[in-house]
Design goal:
Number of helices: 9
CATH topology of the largest domain: Rna Polymerase Sigma Factor, Chain: A
Number of strands: 0
CATH superfamily of the largest domain: RNA polymerase sigma factor, region 2, helix turn helix motif
Order of helices and strands: HHHHHHHHH
Number of domains: 2
CATH architecture of the largest domain: Orthogonal Bundle
Strand content: under 5%
Distance between the termini: 44 Å
Radius of gyration: 19 Å
CATH class of the largest domain: Mainly Alpha
Shape: globular
Structural class: mainly alpha
Largest sheet: none
Helix content: over 70%
C-alpha cells in the first residue's frame, strides 16, 4: 500500500479501508508536526494540533475534492486549527532553540569537520535566528514560517490566515524587516556573514 499515491489512498479510505488512512498519516505526520512546532513554539501544542487535524481530516475526508495535494489540504486544516488556537492564547515567549532540542530536528552542516570554527559560528548564527524568530509577534512569525519554511504562495497564506493577500504581503515584508533589525542589534557586523 506504500507504493500508492495520496489520491489512491484517499479513494481506498472513502471505500472503508482505514489502513489506507494510516499510511497517509505515517507519510505526512512528521512534516506537519515540524511546521506546527515552528509556528506554535511548543512541541506539546503542536502535537495536540497535529492530532486534531488528522482526526478532522479523517472525519471530513469526503470533502477532499482532490484539486490540490492531500498534504496541502491537511496542512490547511492544521493551520486553521493552529491559527484559532493562537488567537485564544496569550502565552509567554519560549526559546525556539529549546524546542529544536526537544524535537531532535536540527540542521547539520555538511562541512562541519572541514572548518570547525566556521561551522561553530554558523551554528551560533542559526541559534540566534531561531531565538529571534520566536520573539516576533504571532502575526509576523506565522506568515514567515508559512512562506519561508513551508514555501507557501501568498494566496495560499491569505486563504489559510483569512486575511487579504495585501495584508499577507505587508506582514511578510514587515516581519522580515523586524527580524533583520533584531538580528542586526544582536549580531552587529556579523549579519553580513549570514
Amino acid at each position: 500500500m506504500n507504493n500508492l499515491d495520496d489520491h489512491q489512498l484517499v479513494e481506498l479510505c472513502r471505500n472503508g479501508d482505514d489502513t489506507a488512512f494510516d499510511v497517509l498519516v505515517l507519510r505526512h505526520q512528521d512534516r506537519l508536526f515540524h511546521s506546527l512546532v515552528s509556528m506554535l513554539k511548543s512541541r506539546e501544542d503542536a502535537l495536540d494540533i497535529a492530532q486534531s487535524a488528522l482526526l478532522q481530516a479523517h472525519r471530513k475526508l469526503d470533502t477532499f475534492r482532490g484539486d490540490s495535494a492531500f498534504y496541502s489540504w491537511l496542512y490547511r486544516i492544521a493551520m486553521n486549527l493552529a491559527l484559532s488556537w493562537l488567537r485564544k492564547q496569550k502565552s509567554g515567549s519560549v526559546s525556539i532553540d529549546a524546542l529544536h532540542d526537544e524535537s531532535g530536528f536540527e540542521v547539520v552542516s555538511e562541512d562541519r569537520d572541514s572548518q570547525p570554527l566556521a561551522s561553530l559560528l554558523r551554528e551560533e548564527h542559526r541559534r540566534v535566528v531561531r531565538e529571534t524568530l520566536a520573539e516576533l509577534p504571532d502575526e509576523f512569525r506565522t506568515v514567515l514560517v508559512m512562506k519561508e519554511f513551508e514555501g507557501l504562495r501568498y494566496d495560499e497564506i491569505a486563504s489559510l490566515t483569512e486575511v487579504p493577500i495585501g495584508t499577507v504581503r505587508s506582514r511578510i515584508h514587515r516581519g522580515r524587516g523586524e527580524l533583520a533589525q533584531r538580528l542586526k542589534r544582536k549580531l552587529g557586523d556579523q549579519i553580513e556573514e549570514l
